[in-house]
Amino acid sequence: MEKEYNYYYKLRNKIKNGVNKITKNEELPEYLLLAPDLFYLLIKLMQDKEVPKSKKIKLGAVIAYFITPFDFLPEALMGLIGYIDDVALTAYILNDFFNEMNPEIIKKNWPGEKKLLNVIQNILEDTDKFINKNIVNRLKKLIDNDNV
Q1: Over the stretch 61-90, which tens digit does the pLDDT of each residue have?
Q2: Where along the chain do its domains lie?
Q3: Cα(27)–Cα(16) distance, rounded to whole angstroms?
Q4: Choosing a second label site near 49 at 20 to 30 A (CA), which of 24, 94, 109, 144?
């Protein structure tokens, strides 16, 4: 897991240092700054013994999606904006988890300052503003078909 923690700190610094330079949209930087905290939450949930193994498979897939350079919006091509699909996919999976398991397990691992359920709901409501609807539909299919 050391690799994932290093990724967390590198991602946090990268986004924090560059987020205000990439867009005039005032909401997008706020969502991009959630990426490191959401990634950290995924790692913590993987380590939590209360999280069912069936959920850990999905968590592992989302962590891999975060780390891999080959996703719908590759960071190598898109820069920091490429993390918005990672944030959206994480919100979709966490929303399912809130509906399918004890939400307190998720909340206790959240490092962010805002209420996690509000964060997830805001991301889900606003995803269409930042990502093409075709990509949003593909992300939803990944979750809905249990391919993740």
Answers
A1: 999 988 888 888 887 788 788 889 999 999
A2: 2-144
A3: 14
A4: 144
